[in-house]
Amino acid sequence: MPKLMSLQVNRPPLWRDVLPTPSPDADKYARGHVLVLGAPDLTGATRLAASACSRIGAGLVSVVATRRADVYRASLPPQVMVWDGVLHRPKRVSVVLAGCGGADRQPLERILARSSGCHQVLDAGAIGAVMRHRAPTDRRRIITPHQGEFDRAFPDLGGGVETRALAAARLTASLVVLKGRETIIAAPDGRLVVNSRSSAYLATAGTGDVLAGLIAGLLAQRMPPFEACCAAVWVHAEAGIRFGPGLVADDIVRQVPAILSRLLAGRDSHHQFRPEEGGDGIPHPDMFDLVDAGLMPTESRKL
User: Fold this and answer.
1) Is the pLDDT of residue 1 over 60?
2) How does pLDDT run across 147-192, given as a tens digit for each residue?
3) What pairing do the DSSP bridges indicate for beta strands 183-186 and 192-195?
4) Where are the beta strands (DSSP E) in 10-117?
5) What is each CA distance from 178 to 36, 66, 131, 236, 301, in whole angstroms?
6) CA distances from 222 to 19, 60, 71, 74 (A)
């Protein structure tokens, strides 16, 4: 079992160089297809997750609705396709996202059994399925619990929050994104990252559904799974910081294009830019923008 040496701080230098961008000849399938299992009752959660998938760059997003298909057709953005029933799910799917807003057990079990060749992102109502289904052998499974969901799913795991997250990752052969004031990203191989820069305004309904959608959308574009989780968590937090008071979950999705543009610009120029300090030894105000854009070095701290 790999030895845990340090806990890295989530900063763009960890993952910026593998942020996906479409090639000049890419079509929509080259940018990936996310299949979202529609919630039977809390349809807004599914809509938030699907919108986030689309906004962060997935080429196609489909919602499979075992119930409420007409509600989804009337309320989802026009680029999101709606399908009736798991038996008629679309083909060429690269990522399955389930659990946002809850999931009926039978359709959930069926879709997970049929998606062994896809990445899987399991949120909220789908997290309990990790103990009933083996992780895909050649793809990644990601679970995205908040602390209460984590405690219910893994009541016997002891230790501090980082130790428990890593133990859950190893137990389930999954990446764990443990959401909180400091979100932890843990991998079965021992990698561990903490996102400590966030906003209290993210503590509102639906923001977790958006995060799950951002992760799925980056996975669809073939971003490495661990880096996709770290990037999605950072973008999600950055949106909360930028928007501030009055934020609702939809506002995160609207912030994504500007944040991505800044990150990609930073990727192109970070070797040339060197932030300078003011004459009084206090960092120049522009330095904080450069930190936001990921132009400062990665940090780590010992456990």
Assistant:
1) no
2) 999 999 999 999 999 999 999 999 999 999 999 999 999 999 999 9
3) antiparallel
4) 33-37, 60-65, 80-84, 95-98
5) 21, 29, 17, 14, 18
6) 9, 14, 31, 30
Grouping H, G, I as helix, E, B as strand and the rest as coil, residue 221 is: coil
If 0-12 CB within 10 Å is exposed, 13-18 middle and 19+ buried, where does residue 75 land?
A: middle
Q: Which two structure tokens, joined as six digits, stand for 49?
A: 């997750």
Determine the residue type at 42. Answer: L
CA-CA distances (angstroms) from residue 19 to 5, 28, 32, 208, 230?
26, 17, 14, 21, 11
In angstroms, the CA 42 to CA 32 distance is 26
The CATH number assigned to the domain with range 6-302 reads: 3.40.1190.20
Q: How far apart are CA 71 and CA 80, in angstroms?
A: 13
Structure tokens at 181: 């004031």
Angstrom distance (rounded) from CA 119 to CA 164: 23
